[in-house]
Amino acid sequence: MGIETSRLILRRPTLSDVPRLFAFLGDAQAMRHTHADASLRQCRRRIAVHEWQRRRNGYAPWTVLTKADARMIGWGGLYDDPFDPGWGIEVGYYFDPAAWGNGYATELTQACTAFADDVLGVPELRAFARPGNIGSRRVLQKAGFDVVRFVPEMDRFLYRRGRPAARVA
User: Fold this and answer.
1) pLDDT, tens digit, 9 for 90 and up, residues 25-60
2) What beta strand segments (E) does the chain contain?
3) Contact indicator for 40, 18 with CB cutoff of 8 Å
4) Structural domains of the chain, with CATH
């Protein structure tokens, strides 16, 4: 199941996406606030494990393309982290540095919260951001996430967003 926003196409990743995704998911500088894959094989494994979760849970990160030219610019969405479980359903986003500063993370996060509210009906979402990642912290705040606490062993803030009350028609 894919989703379209005003400027983005969010679709299931394919194995053929992995080399392009690895170009930024494997870039230590671009991923300095999160995890960088050490190899193409590790990136392929990450994508495959998340796709297994999509089949099981009904959600996982999408490959993010620009609607205007179908350019692959990111990977992100909802997931229950298979590599660090126990935090609940999280929102995460990873973008090619060439796409930074264009509001794509905000647009993706808004699509994620709408999907979580309208399709999954989950009571809350979580997210993490490092203290120095001001852009990501702003994205989360704009999407209605609040800081829960600082998690020192991860050097990250834990954010939470509860499901809004049902709208009256």
Assistant:
1) 988 888 888 888 899 999 999 999 999 999 999 999
2) 3-4, 8-11, 62-66, 72-79, 90-95, 124-129, 146-151, 156-162
3) yes
4) 3-162 (3.40.630.30)
